[in-house]
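Methods — Computational structure assignment.
A single polypeptide chain was analysed. Its primary sequence is given first, followed by the predicted tertiary structure written as structure tokens.
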Amino acid sequence: MKLYYHDGYAVAGDGSAAKRLILHGPIIKVELTPWHLPAPRVTARLLLDTGSDISALAQDIIGSLGLSSLRPVQARLADGRVYQRFLYRMSMHLPVSCAGQGAPGGTFMFSANSVGQEVHSPPDMRVSDGLIGRDFLSHFQFRYDGETGSFRLEVRQ
């Protein structure tokens, strides 16, 4: 097996998929709608972040969905700072497979709460539009393979 090095990390194969995974993390494309409503529908790129307690979404995406906040919450950042953010409820439509079923899966609709986050880069310059934290990931099996640059999100059976 051939290993390539990128910024101090060893990656396998031609390295392109693994480089993306190392540089940007596991990012999944989802469709978002207001909670239990079919429209408006917004496509977002979200980072699967196992280090985050709660999911977060760029404020402009929340605005595009026309969401109203449920209540204020305290959000703690990785560096320990605490901010007050507002909590929103929406539906996420995710491409997932069914764990242990050997089936390709399909789209899974899940009601989720998310906090709004300030993003200071325009949407076309962003790597992601937010993150999916453990509040959401705890309902799934997440398989991460850094060597191949792949990951799977599977519905728990």
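Note: The chain has three helices and eleven strands.
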